[in-house]
Amino acid sequence: MTPRRPPYPLSVAPMMDWTDRHYRAFMRGVTRRTLLYTEMVHVNAVLRGDRERVLGFSEFEKPLALQLGGDDPRKLAACARVAEDWGYSELNLNVGCPSPRVQRGNFGACLMAQPERVAACVAAMREATTLPVTVKHRIGIDDRDRFDDLAHFVEVVAQAAPARFTVHARKAWLSGLSPKENRTVPPLRYEEVYQLKRLHPELEIELNGGVRSLEAAAAHLGRVDAVMIGRAAYEDPYALARADALFYGAPHVPTRREVVEAFLPYASRQLERGVPLASLTRHLLGLFTGAPGARAWRRLLSEQAHQPGAGVEVLERALGALPDEVLDARPEVSAPQPAPTRAPATATQGFGQR
């Protein structure tokens, strides 16, 4: 069985408090082709909240998936129509978050015990939109963590024909572990995700959980269709600088200087709108992880971005404090390259104009 090559073989996971529009704008200087996600948005926030605040994004952030939390097919269908109107690339249903607050709302990981409801939600969303609808879930919850339980969940939901199953290769405990512990304590069980792909070669299966490098992602792509990277993409964002070259055959690998310079126009426009500089720069603290000058970079941003009236000159000063050989180093693309994937066109013109 040879995994298919979907439009987006690599994605960055939706992460609360992290994958906001400022992070996504920054990451587009690192990788133009990798699929990005919003933070999880509850259906009521979409239907009743300030949509510009909840859903707003810049065109250059695409390809961009909106992750929704909810269990009501009618509300999810309404959100799907709104998301298509706003121009999102995909929709994703969260069936993986185990937090107590999410459980009280009967969505997230607890829905793995209700595969028929998940199927109904997916079917309603697909009926309401032409956008791809995907499902992100765990390999199991509590004592429902045998492979047969996972296979049953996927087979029921597959009847609604989601475009992709993104499988976090850890089970979730709905009680007894915090959300943070649920990301680290249950062991990774990659083989069960591989087995799911072998059992259902017709389905698009994406692996999530514990992937820390592009090399690891490339290795998994020999067994599954796509790979999602989570916290590693936030803690060391420049680790994805080779993603477009490795997975899409794109010729350009940006330097760290180019990444920051690409972000400056967006940062300037956000500052004009009253966004504090620190809200923007907090996502850039890990840009020089593992490189000489990383500590100085973090210190300068941390100390100066919070000052009243701080503007993009803080970023420019921080760049000036680092040696040119670090700023302009361009990593070589030396890992084995999967077959280039043809992705839908992305908006690369006018970066930072919205």
Brief description of this entry?
The protein has helices spanning 21-27, 43-48, 51-55, 73-86, 100-104, 115-128, 147-158, 179-182, 190-199, 214-220, 231-235, 243-248, 256-272, 277-281, 294-304, 313-320, 324-327; strands spanning 10-12, 36-37, 41-42, 64-69, 90-95, 133-138, 164-168, 205-208, 226-229. It has 354 residues and is α/β, with parallel strands linked by helices.
Task: Determine the fraction of residues in helical runs and give it as a percent range.
Answer: 25-40%
Structural class: alpha/beta
Biggest beta sheet summary: 9 strands, parallel
Number of helices, where a helix is a run of at least 4 consecutive DSSP H or I residues: 17
What count of domains describes the coordinates? Answer: 2
Name of the CATH class of the largest domain: Alpha Beta
Which quaternary structure do these chains form? single chain
CATH architecture of the largest domain: Alpha-Beta Barrel
The gross shape turns out to be: globular
**Gap between N and C termini:** 44 Å
Can you describe what's shown?
The active site is at residue 97. Belongs to the Dus family. DusA subfamily. Belongs to the dus family. By secondary structure, this protein is of the alpha/beta class. It has two domains: 10-248, TIM Barrel (Alpha-Beta Barrel); 256-327, Four Helix Bundle (Hemerythrin (Met), subunit A). 40% of the residues lie in helices and 11% in strands. The protein contains 17 helices and nine strands. It has helices at residues 21-27, 43-48, 51-55, 73-86, 100-104, 115-128, 147-158, 179-182, 190-199, 214-220, 231-235, 243-248, 256-272, 277-281, 294-304, 313-320, 324-327, and strands at 10-12, 36-37, 41-42, 64-69, 90-95, 133-138, 164-168, 205-208, 226-229. Strands 1, 2, 3, 4, 5, 6, 7, 8 and 9 form a nine-stranded parallel sheet that branches. Helix 1 runs antiparallel to helix 13 (256-272), helix 4 (73-86) runs parallel beside helix 6 and helix 15 packs antiparallel against helix 16. The radius of gyration is 20 Å and the shape is globular. The N and C termini lie far apart (44 Å). 45% of the residues are buried. Mean pLDDT is 93; it is low at 336-354.
